[in-house]
């Protein structure tokens, strides 16, 4: 089997590739700039800043699949435990000519799915028990094809890195402000430098977080449309994916608000966002395009395929 997303049979998406490269370049530039500001303001503490930022970045990239699995309560399952789920993934991976990811299930009534991992060989696809209970086999196939396309296109890794850099800016700000690094040998200089840094560092951190937030939102919405397209074209059944989308979105809106709030930090990874009906109507900066947009696109693909 092919070891690279570039050789899988999922339809390539130049628009997605261009957006991923642009997002990573801009966020990387932002991150380097932020680290540079901290080094200038904190002077003697720069080795620690570089060590912390580099260490956290490597850890997040290397263990992103494990971290996300644990955060979302996912557990890896065997073909004996979930034969239909594994069978569907096996068929789709053979159809797409891509490595089979690890398969996990989260014991959660919210119907949803997600994929994570730094590359196709180190990825995991997870579904909730709520999703398995509610979907017909062809609908489940559409959702799983959608998640596998995220893995094949490698946009999961880009979203993981891009999202983490904004959080990391906040962590480094706290370390700088409360870790006793603002100062020098001269008492007056120390007070003056500390006052300047106390004003500048939070402002720079807020700007870094805001820009990374907007960039990841824009990429996230596009990648969901790209995954819907790729899944519909691979399976040849856009109507099944549209049916799954409609069912999942409607069922999520009925989940208790307190459960949705717990899941919302991970919305960028989910097949459908954990939003109530009211939230979905008012959220301007959603991680996902609207249900109407997604269904309209699938309708066009269906007409083109003559389904």
UniProtKB/TrEMBL annotation:
It is a multi-pass membrane protein. The chain crosses the membrane at residues 21-39, 45-63, 156-182, 194-215. Residues 81-300 form the Peptidase M48 domain. Its EC number is 3.4.24.-. HAMAP family: Pept_M48_protease_HtpX (MF_00188). Binds 1 zinc ion per subunit. GO terms for molecular function: metallopeptidase activity. Belongs to the peptidase M48B family. The active site is at 147. Zn(2+) binds at residues 146, 150, 224. It is found in: Cell membrane. InterPro entries: HtpX_protease (IPR050083), Pept_M48_protease_HtpX (IPR022919), Peptidase_M48 (IPR001915). This is Protease HtpX homolog. Its cofactor is Zn(2+). Keywords: Cell membrane, Hydrolase, Membrane, Metal-binding, Metalloprotease, Protease, Transmembrane, Transmembrane helix, Zinc. CDD domains: M48B_HtpX_like.
């Amino acid at each position: 089997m092919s070891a690279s997303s570039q050789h899988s049979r999922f339809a390539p998406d130049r628009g997605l590739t261009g957006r991923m490269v642009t997002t990573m370049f801009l966020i990387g530039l932002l991150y380097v700039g932020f680290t540079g500001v901290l080094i200038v303001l904190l002077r003697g503490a720069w080795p620690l800043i570089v060590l912390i930022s580099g260490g956290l970045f490597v850890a997040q990239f290397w263990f992103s699949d494990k971290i996300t699995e644990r955060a979302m309560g996912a557990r890896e399952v065997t073909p004996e435990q979930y034969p239909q789920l594994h069978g569907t993934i096996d068929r789709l991976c053979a159809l797409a000519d891509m490595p089979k990811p690890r398969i996990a299930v989260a014991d959660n009534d919210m119907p949803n799915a997600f994929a994570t991992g730094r590359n196709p060989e180190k990825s995991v696809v997870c579904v909730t028990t709520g999703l398995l209970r509610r979907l017909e086999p062809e609908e489940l196939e559409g959702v799983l094809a959608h998640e596998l396309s995220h893995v094949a296109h490698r946009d999961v890794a880009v979203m993981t890195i891009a999202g983490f850099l904004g959080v990391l800016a906040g962590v480094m700000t706290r370390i700088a402000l409360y870790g006793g690094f603002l100062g020098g040998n001269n008492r007056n200089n120390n007070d003056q430098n500390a006052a300047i840094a106390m004003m500048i560092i939070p402002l720079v951190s807020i700007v870094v977080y805001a820009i990374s937030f907007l960039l990841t939102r824009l990429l996230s919405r596009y990648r969901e449309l790209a995954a819907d397209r790729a899944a519909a074209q691979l399976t040849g059944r856009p109507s099944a994916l549209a049916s799954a989308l409609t069912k999942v979105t409607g069922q999520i809106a009925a989940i208790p608000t307190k459960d949705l709030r717990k899941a919302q930090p991970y919305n960028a990874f989910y097949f459908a966002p954990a939003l109530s009906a009211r939230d979905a109507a008012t959220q301007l900066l959603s991680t996902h395009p609207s249900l109407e947009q997604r269904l309209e696109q699938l309708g066009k693909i269906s007409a083109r395929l003559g389904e």
